[in-house]
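fwd from M.: "can u put these together and see what the complex looks like"

so here's what she sent:
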Amino acid sequence: AQSVTQLGSHVSVSEGALVLLRCNYSSSVPPYLFWYVQYPNQGLQLLLKYTSAATLVKGINGFEAEFKKSETSFHLTKPSAHMSDAAEYFCAVSDQSGGSYIPTFGRGTSLIVHP
Amino acid sequence: GAGVSQSPRYKVAKRGQDVALRCDPISGHVSLFWYQQALGQGPEFLTYFQNEAQLDKSGLPSDRFFAERPEGSVSTLKIQRTQQEDSAVYLCASSARTGANTGELFFGEGSRLTVL
């Protein structure tokens, strides 16, 4: 069975500071990993995905994530936070352990950006 | 349409009422998912369709929950005899892909259900 753990329900940074949102996964087979962002009153949007190609994945809005198999992690980073980055971020894992590729989501991390 | 459309956006039901939530996915998208998102939580999987076939319904919490996608496009999630614990945002997502890249999901804005 697959699962996702997002450490920290809230992360607070100053504008211009490094953003680091943590995600650890559990999967019995090679996983596919995703980060989604949810702005207030909007649906989730795909930020980036890892599908067994390059371990460093670049996404939209300057975000990137690195797949580390030895650490079972897929942390999301951005060098310099912007006020518009304030949102809820969800990590998701998908594998074929259950027969179909059903994405499982973490509980989410709320990113707060201070001016 | 341009994106995934869900209706109604907001629904208030009295305990014991039946509700129906509609999802209109992106045209041509094969895969369709329903998720339940409680306040402060991540989306929890309910059920998955590939075209009109319901391939996985393991996440439906009880037999009061029923989903269908009869023509492989629009889907309806029905909740019978609603209970207060059913209060949540119900998210629909579609994907043009199947298999390993199914996780590239396009989400609707959700239907917020409040059961009094």
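replying to her w this: The radius of gyration of chain A is 14 Å.
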